[in-house]
Amino acid sequence: MGSGPMSAWDRVWPAPAKINLFLHVVGRRADGYHLLQTVFRFLDQGDELRFEPRPDGKIVAAGPLHGVPPDADLTIRAARLLRQRSGLEGGVTIHLTKRLPLGGGLGGGSSDAATTLMALNRLWQCGLSSAELQRLGLSLGADVPVFIHGQACFAEGVGDQFTDLALPPAWYLVTIPDVSVPTAEVFRASDLRRDTPAMVPAAWRPGVGGNDLESVARRLFPEVGHHLDWLRTLGPARMSGSGACCFAEFATESAARAAGAALPADMRGFVARGLDSHPILN
Hints:
Blueprint: H1 6-9, E1 13-28, E2 34-54, E3 59-61, H2 74-86, E4 91-97, H3 108-123, H4 130-138, H5 144-149, E5 153-156, E6 161-164, E7 171-175, H6 183-188, H7 214-220, H8 222-231, E8 237-239, E9 246-250, H9 253-261, E10 269-275
Parallel strand pairs: 3-4
Antiparallel strand pairs: 1-2, 2-4, 2-5, 2-10, 5-6, 7-9, 7-10, 8-9
Helix pairs in contact: 2-3, 3-4, 7-8
C-alpha cells in the first residue's frame, strides 16, 4: 500500500461545522429522495481528526462515539469505503475530537466523514479526484459531498449540485438546544412542505429564503422554537439543516460576541466566523 510521509500522519485535520443560510424543499423524486435548494457556509468551529497508521490492516476508532455503534460511525465507514475503492490494504486508527453536537444540523458526522476521505486520500496516496471523493461521500450521506467540494455554495438536487458563491464576511451566534433531531423523522413528517418554488442560483441573495424544515422541527421539539424565538429578538434567525441548532448573523465579531454574552442561563451556544472555503483547502 502507499502511505504519506510520516510527518503528514502527525497532522490534525479539521472537520468544520456548516450552516444552511436557507433551506427549501422543492420536490421529491420517485425514489423518495427530497429535492433541496440551500446555501452552505462553513464555520471556523468544528471537530478535529488525527490518523495513525496500523500494521494489522484494521480500521478502528480510538474511542467509541457516544450513542453510535462502530458500524454506524461515519469515519469508520468512510475509511473502509476509500480502502475498498482504492484496492489498498492499510489499517488506521481514527482519533476524533468531537465538539459538534449529534443531531444538531451542523453537519458534524458528514464533515467528519468528508475529512476522513480527504485526509486518507492523501495519507494513503490514493490519488482520487475531488469529484471521485464526492461520489464516494454521497453514498455515506447527502451532506458529505459539499464538505469535499469545500466552497461556500448554492446547492441543489439531493445536495450534490453546487454553484460557488462569494458571501460577505459575517459572524454567527449559534445556539445548541438540548435535543437531538433525527433528520429522517423531520423529512417523513406529513406536514412538511415539499413544493416551494425553485429559484435559479443567481437569484439568491443573503437573507432570501427560509427553512422549510423549521415548522416540523418546532412541532416535534419545542426547545428549537424557544431558541429561535429568543434569537429573533436580536434580528433575523434561522434553524440550520433539520435542526436542532439555530443561528443569527452579525456583521462584526464584537456584535456576535455581545449577543453571545446575553444568552439566557438556560441556553448554550458559541460564536463563529463564516468561512469561504474548507480549511483543509487553504
